[in-house]
Design the sequence.
């Protein structure tokens, strides 16, 4: 099959690599323009562009696909199908209809649950027990197209957005290779989504990372894991912003939310709206990630002190 691939970050590059390994004919790669990155803000190509160039693939980097000149370039390669994974640009109807078999999207949730920009983070934050990959036939809506293939994976109590992202990257790569094989043999059966079961994974805002200690320890633990590594969950202590990277919830009797109940080599025990949270890995603004014991060696906290309790209304 002649395939156009559209994607940008590592999640997408993992899928592209699998398609190359499966000997598919990648006739064109679309990815976002190079962006400034790193301390020197050097113009940096996407993970997909770097991989495509290693394999000598043709790469286009439009700022938008609304310009008809790009439609001409896409149509010129006469592709059978377009595979889309975390591309980051809206595909107009005029583009969706160019490939003979349309456009297949690799979406990181079990649709119709978690349509939208942040399905991995929202699944963890909501306490979902499982998530997965959906291969979807794209239409003009936001993740509303017919379901072609689903693969599920459990969400462990230790999963962060990063670890779950990595699992889903691998699963997505496997799923699209399988879906294209079924497509070639005309064995993909589209299933309409049940819109009544849909929920929306809104883009993560930085201020959502602020911890509200009045929430339960379980909810706060989920937020910490959902926002690791971006944007990071944080609290304030005497005007110091402190990011929390790893914690563990307990269901034991609590105290006033935000109060430090105990300090020991295993962590800092903080009261929540219900239960307690043991802070295990933390980071002061401008500092390094440290274990609680390392952190306390250079930062004074005492039992009875309080973290700032004001937080985001999101749970």
Sequence:
């Amino acid at each position: 099959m002649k395939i156009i691939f559209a994607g940008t970050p590592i999640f997408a590059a993992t899928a592209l690599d699998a398609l190359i390994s499966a000997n598919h004919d990648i006739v064109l790669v679309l990815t976002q323009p190079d962006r400034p990155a790193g301390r020197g803000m050097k113009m940096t190509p996407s993970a997909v562009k770097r991989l495509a160039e290693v394999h000598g693939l043709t790469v286009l980097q439009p700022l938008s696909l609304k310009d008809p000149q790009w439609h001409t370039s896409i149509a010129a390669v006469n592709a059978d199908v377009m595979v889309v994974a975390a591309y980051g640009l809206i595909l107009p109807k005029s583009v969706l209809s160019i490939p003979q078999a349309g456009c297949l999207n690799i979406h990181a949730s079990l649709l119709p649950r978690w349509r939208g920009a942040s399905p991995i983070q929202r699944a963890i934050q909501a306490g979902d027990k499982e998530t997965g990959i959906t291969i979807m036939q794209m239409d003009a809506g936001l993740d509303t197209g017919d379901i072609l293939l689903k693969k599920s994976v459990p969400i462990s109590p230790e999963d962060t957005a990063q670890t779950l992202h990595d699992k889903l990257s691998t699963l997505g790569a496997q799923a699209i290779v399988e879906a294209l094989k079924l497509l070639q043999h005309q064995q993909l059966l589209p299933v309409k989504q049940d819109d009544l079961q849909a929920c929306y994974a809104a883009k993560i805002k930085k201020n959502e990372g602020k911890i509200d200690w009045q929430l339960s320890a379980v909810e706060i633990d989920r937020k910490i894991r959902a926002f690791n590594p971006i944007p990071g969950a944080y609290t304030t202590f005497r005007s110091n912003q402190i990011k929390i990277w790893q914690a563990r919830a307990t269901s034991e009797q609590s105290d006033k939310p935000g109060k430090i109940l105990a300090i020991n080599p295993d962590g800092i025990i903080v009261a929540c709206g219900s239960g307690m949270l043991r802070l295990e890995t933390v980071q002061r603004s401008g500092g390094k990630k440290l274990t609680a014991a390392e952190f306390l060696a250079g930062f004074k906290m005492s039992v009875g002190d309080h973290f700032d309790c004001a937080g985001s209304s999101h749970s």
Remarks:
- The chain has a mean pLDDT of 94.
- The domain at 206-297 is CATH 3.10.25.10 (Methionyl-tRNA Fmet Formyltransferase; Chain A, domain 2).
- The chain has two domains: 2-201, 206-297.
